[in-house]
Amino acid sequence: MATLEIDRDAAVKPSASRGVDLKLEVVVIPVSDVDRAKTFYARLGWRLDADFASGDGWRVIQFTPPGSACSVIFGSNVTAAAPGSARGLYLIVSDLEAARKDLLGRGIAVSEPFHGGGDVHAGPDEPYLFGSVRAGGADPKRGSYSSFASFSDPDGNGWLFQEVTTRLPGRIEADATTFASQTDLAAALRRASVAHGEHEKRTGGHDENWADWYADYIVREQAGQTLPL
Q: Dihedral sign, CA of 80, 66, 213, 195?
């Protein structure tokens, strides 16, 4: 099975030319039927931020996924791109199965979990999946960044769930641990609880400083650092 090779040293080196923060805030997706797309993205449970129109045939709608700092917009006379041509739109989730169940409960078709299983790009239906042919099921080792599921909007714009539980070094500052949602925080606490249970088994007793241990574990995990034992 293929593995995801990443230059971790490069990941932690800040840009020498960094001046101001550049925050990706909006992604434009091309659709053919604006109202149909609006109904679909509302059905996903995403927040409707705006629906503006003018007399010259211009209309723009903005939705934001739960916990996301980036929104999507679509509408009439918003982009010249072909409807359905947006692919490889990644939604990062801390629990792939929970994310799938949520969509299925809303009546949205979503693929079974899959992971990388080769060294070429995915097949014709998913040419945008990075780095590998899909293999059935979540990653056997449940490695962070390694398990996926996919779904599409009515025009065929393609979305991917990617399960990320531990960030690579440099992706988040150790003193700025944040969570996009209550669900993500709860998932981090559950992982810390399991790890702390193993810690107490190794040390052979009750750890009265469990709160400090939890905090250390979660901060290190989010920063991609070595986890406490």
A: negative
